[in-house]
Amino acid sequence: MIRVAIAGTGSVAAACHMPALAAERHRVQVVAAVDVDSVRVKAFCGEHGIPQAYSGLNEMLARERPDIVHICTPPHAHARQVVDCLKAGAWVWCEKPPCLSLAEHDRITAAERGTFAAVVFQHRFGSGARHLRRLVETGELGRPMVALCVTAWHRDRSYYAAPWRGRWDTEGGGPTMGHGIHQMDLMLSMFGDWEEIRAMARRVDRPVETEDVSVASVRFANGAMGSVLNSVLSPREESYLRFDFDRATVELRHVNGYHNDDWTCSRPDLWQPPDDVAGSHAAQLAALLDSYERRERPAMSGKDSRATLEFVTGLYAAAFTGRPVRRSDLTMDNPFYHRLDGGTTPLTVRRRPGVPLRRPGGCARPAGRRRPTPRRR
C-alpha cells in the first residue's frame, strides 16, 4: 500500500482529495493528516478514519514517513512545505497555485532527488482533454488557429474574509493565479508554448490588494492567437474554452469539472472519446499513483507545471508594465520572476473594514496617513 498524508484539512482536502483517495483505496492508505488547527485536524481524522493527527508537518514526516503528501494549505506555505516533504523522501501532490513565483518553483525543482512534486492541474486528465490532445497530436483537426479561454466565476466579499486571500504575499495573485489557472493550463496543453502576451489587470470591486479581473491576448509559438479572461465578478459562473483549428472547432463549457457531455465539436465524426472520465482530482491521482509505482516523473511536475506558472507570470508582467512580454523575458533578473506583482503594488489598494492596508512586503501603512494627491500641471 502507498502511504499518503494530508497537509491542510480545509474544504479542498475534504471535498476533492479524500474522495479521490477513496477511489484508490485498493492501493492507498491515508496514514496521517496535519493542520495548525489541532481541533480541526482531529475532527477531520475522525470523520475520515485517519489514524494519526498532527499539528506540525516535520513531526509528521519524521514519525510517519509517508510515500506521498497532499499539500492542501494556503499558497504562501506551499514552497516551504513541498521542499520539506521532498527532503524527507516523500513525493508531493500540491494544490494550485504551486507556489508564489517562478523563483519558488525553481527551488522546488532543485529539491527533487528521486522524489517529485506534481501540481493539481486535474482538467488535463479527463477523457475529453485526452481525446482532444490526441486529435491535435495526430493532426486530424488541422492547424491550431484561435483559442478563447474564459474563467468567469463569482466570489463575493465574504470569500475574502480569510486573512490570506486577496494578498500578494499570501495568495500570490487574484483570479489569474488562483482561479483561471486551470483553464489557462488546459489551453496551453492544447496550443503549446506561448511567445508573447499583452494584458490588463484591474481591481474593479472586491476589497483586495490583487486584481479581481484580468484580460490578455497571447501569441503562441505555432502562430495561433488567443484571448484570455479571468474574473471573480461574474454572477453566472462559467468556464469556457474554444479551440478553432482549420478543420474544426472544439468547445468546452463547465464550471469546476467536466464530463464528455460538456464538450462539443463541429465535426461529430471526430469526437468519439473512448470512455467518459471526468476532469477531476480522481483522474489525476490515478495517473500520479501509476507514476509512483513505476518510479518515473509524474505529469504536471517540473517543467510541465512551470510552464503554466510562467504564463501567469507573463500575464501579470504585461499587465503591470503596460508592455508586451515575451516568454524569453522572464529570466532571473526580471522582478516578476521573484514576485508576481513585480515587487511593487501595481493596483490602488482598497481598505477592508478593520484591516490596515498592506504593501507587497506585508508591512501595514500607518493608520491615518494618506498618500499625497499629485498636483495637476
UniProtKB/TrEMBL annotation:
Biased composition (Basic residues) is annotated at 367-377
Its transmembrane ranges are none
> Which Gene3D superfamilies does this UniProt record tie to the protein?
Dihydrodipicolinate Reductase, domain 2, NAD(P)-binding Rossmann-like Domain
Q: Which domain of life is it from?
A: Bacteria
Pfam families tied to this protein: GFO_IDH_MocA (PF01408), GFO_IDH_MocA_C3 (PF22725)
The GFO/IDH/MocA-like oxidoreductase domain extends over: 130-243
Q: Where is the Gfo/Idh/MocA-like oxidoreductase N-terminal domain?
A: 2-114
Q: What molecular functions are annotated in GO for this chain? A: nucleotide binding
| PROSITE patterns listed in its UniProt record | PROKAR_LIPOPROTEIN
Bias class Low complexity marks the residues at 343-366
The record's region (Disordered) falls at 343-377
PANTHER family for this protein: D-GLUCOSIDE 3-DEHYDROGENASE, UDP-N-ACETYL-2-AMINO-2-DEOXY-D-GLUCURONATE OXIDASE
Protein name per Swiss-Prot or TrEMBL: Putative dehydrogenase
